[in-house]
Here is the input.
Amino acid sequence: MAEKLFSRPQSLKDVAFHYCPGCHHGIIHRLVAEVIDELDVRDKTIGVAPVGCSVLAYEYFNCDMFEAAHGRAPAVATGIKRSQPDTVVFTYQGDGDLAAIGCAEIVHAAARGEKITTIFVNNAIYGMTGGQMAPTSLIEQVTNTSPYGRNADSAGMPIRMSEMLATLDGASFIARVAVNNPANMAKAKAAIKKAFEIQINGHGFSMVEILSTCPTNWGMSPLEAAAWLEQKMIPYYPLGQFKAPEGVAK
Amino acid sequence: MPKPVFNEERCKGCELCTAVCPKKIVVIANRFNSKGYKPATCSDDAKCIGCALCAKACPDVVIEIHK
Ligand SMILES: Cc1ncc(C[n+]2csc(CCOP(=O)(O)OP(=O)(O)O)c2C)c(N)n1
Ligand code: SF4
Here is the structure.
């Protein structure tokens, strides 16, 4: 066999993703799988899949997986981690799942300092159900339920979950990243790795928010969607590390 | 010599890989795969520098880089 400079990580099953063309969910899956490989924790990792487009994540990650009810992944992960403290437990959640129906679960898991890692995929819309407004949809963003654009008077301002959760004492590590270009992808992977390491080292709750595209429901080509993310999302959702335990580099 | 190898049947023709190749050799082929997408391909293997940026940009893990 040819020697390979780059190939599919072991922690990702060799099956086709169901995601739409150009959707960043696939890139994010691969980065999480690469981190699990590099930390050599696949045998003791348990992932919790959400409801949303990534509901089938349990078909893709090549580790033990659990499927939670909509928004409840942090509560399920809490149970798994408390009963099996030697495992590495992560949740994978969209913004509808985490910031709307599951807002209470994520806030309290973070407040309790649960030793779990959350991968929060913020694509500013409900993808799976056909493009309704999410708590994270931007002002003026046109969605199926905001056909004239999101209006702050009636819908309020988009919630910045990372900044909000970083105020909680139980949260150990909170960062926001994106995967829209090679430099950002490298930073995203580094942040995911730190989040897992912080869990493994016994600190509290860790979360990486990853800005992501939904070309289908944004009504754009994948390349246009990546540009929209850069031009519209990053200015409102600044990238960076909002909280880290002492001694963890920026 | 490094060489990008495409699993064409998994490709959805999203073009994200074409935008990141510093040598501009990752292009969309003028043929369809069985899913009905025009897959990405390499127009000139000899120019590949093995940076793997195309593979990293691919949301469907279509691309391997062989040595
Ligand atoms: C209890 C419950 N309420 C509502 C739904 C319908 N529903 C399915 S996915 C979804 C939103 C998913 O959006 P998000 O979490 O942003 O993920 P995405 O699909 O964009 O990746 C909703 C409201 C459901 N499945 N269960
Ligand atoms: S609907 Fe949006 S989030 Fe869901 S797979 Fe398609 S592009 Fe991705």
The domain at 3-66 of chain B is CATH 3.30.70.20 (Alpha-Beta Plaits).
